[in-house]
Each structure stands twice: as structure tokens, then as C-alpha cells.
Amino acid sequence: MHLILFGAPGAGKGTQGALLSECLGLPKIATGDILRDAVRDGTELGRQANGYMDAGELVPDPVIMGLVRDALHSPDAVDGAIFDGFPRTQPQAEALDKIFADLGRDLDAVVVIEVPDDRIVERMSGRRTDPETGSVYHLKHNPPPPEIARRLMQRPDDEESTVRRRLAVYREQTEPLISRYQRAAVPIHRINGSRGIEQVQRDILGALGC
Ligand code: AP5
């Protein structure tokens, strides 16, 4: 199964992507995570991406397509993958169509996690990430175990003005892709992302018939 998770920044794509990956036994291809790892490791990719990410802007399409092509050719992804944070632009969606055509694969479904903007800002301000495991928590809605509290990090792009810019970029460049997939007759499942994490997961699995 190949599945795309759409949703504004902070809608819960990473949280649900990790749960779905475990549940469905498919790798999660999260371009944001790959880029953050590259920034942390100080690689050439990280140096190319860092300024765009801190400003809440998109990293150029050719950089992203290199990452996704490699991830989809990996042996882990032969049975499918869950895309989190990709595609984000029209050229990325077109390039993904081409990779699928070359590999003889299809997109099975699109899940759109819907959350109002005011809730997004609250979620971002409480988000904390464990640098050792990559696990994502929220100080109020998904509190971390106390023993790891001291090593948790806040993402540099979670500052409120950057979050607002990321939201604008999502509305302008990424949200229109949903109608593109609708026109291509890919099943679209709209999920209320304002409910609790477990309920959202149940709703997604129910919509996918899993
Ligand atoms: P990326 O990492 O993809 O960020 P994003 O799409 O902005 O999404 P987030 O990771 O911020 O949020 P999320 O939806 O995963 O929410 P989460 O589950 O963490 O991209 C970052 C940057 O990288 C981009 O700005 C861009 O520069 C670059 N980039 C990445 N991909 C790119 C691409 N394809 N092209 C170009 N550039 C690219 O949840 C948020 C918080 O809420 C957490 O604290 C969580 O615990 C909590 N939470 C989750 N669900 C719930 C719930 N149901 N109830 C209560 N709290 C919840």
C-alpha cells in the first residue's frame, strides 16, 4: 500500500505516520525527518536545507526528489510506504507519478488530517522531540516519560511567526494537491484531527479498511 498523509504543519502527520507504520508494517518516508537528521549531522544536504527550514519555506524540489527516489528504491519499501510531508508542490507530485510509473506501482489512498489553525499554533508550542529516538511528544496532550524530560528538544521552526509562515505555504502550495488526487480518482479520506491521538488513529484505520 502507498499512502500519502496530508495536513497542515502540526496536524499530526508525524504522530499518525509513526503509528500507521507500526500497525501496517510499512516504512514512513518523512521528508522533514530526513532533512532534520541531515541538519543535525551537518551533511551537505543539511547545509542546503537549513536556511529554508528555519524560515518556514520549502526546500527546493530537486533536493527533495533525490531523497524520495532513494527511499522508494530501498528494499524496505517494496511493499509500499507512508509519505509524511511529501509531496508538497505540483512538481513533486508530478515527479512522484513518474517514479510510480517507472516502478510499476500505484498510489492507493490519500489521508487528509484536518485541524483548525488556532489549535495548530497551540500544538506546535507544546511539541517536544526526543533526539535519541525521534519520538514526538506534547507537553499536555502526549506527555513524555519524566526520565527523558531533560533531553527533549523544541524544533527551531516551531516559533509562532515561522509556524504562521509554514501554514501559509501549506495553504498556497500543498493543499491544492488534494484536488489533483481527487481528479485522478485516488480515494481521499478526510479525518477530524482535533480528536485524541488514539481516536484519530482508529478513524484513519477505519477509513482505510484496516
Ligand atoms: P515537516 O517536518 O514535514 O513539518 P510539517 O509538515 O510542517 O509538519 P510537522 O512535522 O510540523 O507536524 P505534523 O503534522 O507531523 O504534527 P506532529 O505529529 O508532530 O517539514 C519541516 C520543514 O522541512 C518544512 O517547513 C520544509 O522547510 C522542509 N520540508 C519537509 N518536507 C518537504 C518537502 N516535501 N518539500 C519541501 N520542503 C520540505 O504533531 C504536532 C504536535 O501535536 C506534537 O506535539 C504531537 O504530540 C501533538 N499531537 C499530534 N496529534 C495530536 C492530537 N490528535 N491531539 C493532540 N495533540 C496532538
Q: How does this model look, in words?
A:
The protein has nine helices and seven strands; from the N terminus they run E-H-E-H-H-H-E-H-E-H-E-E-H-H-E-H. The chain is globular. By secondary structure, the protein is of the alpha/beta class. It has a five-stranded parallel sheet, with helices on both faces. A two-stranded antiparallel ribbon has the order 5-6. The longest helix is centred in the last third of the chain and has 15 residues, at 160-174. It binds BIS(adenosine)-5'-pentaphosphate.
In short:
This protein has 210 residues and is an alpha/beta fold.
Provide the descriptors you would attach to this structure in a database record:
210 residues, two-stranded antiparallel sheet, 51% helix, globular
> Structural class of the secondary structure composition?
alpha/beta
Instruction: Report the portion of residues in β strands.
Output: 5-15%
- Taken from the alpha-carbon principal axes, the silhouette is globular
Major beta sheet, strand line-up = 2-3-1-4-7
Give a short account of the largest sheet.
5 strands, parallel
Give the C-alpha Rg: 16 Å
Query: What is the H-and-E element order?
Result: EHEHHHEHEHEEHHEH
Number of helices: 9
Distance between the termini: 11 Å
**Estimated helix fraction:** 40-55%
Average pLDDT works out at 95
Q: Count of DSSP E strands?
A: 7
Q: Which residue ranges are poorly predicted, with pLDDT under 50 across at least 5 consecutive positions?
A: none
Give the names of the bound compounds: BIS(adenosine)-5'-pentaphosphate
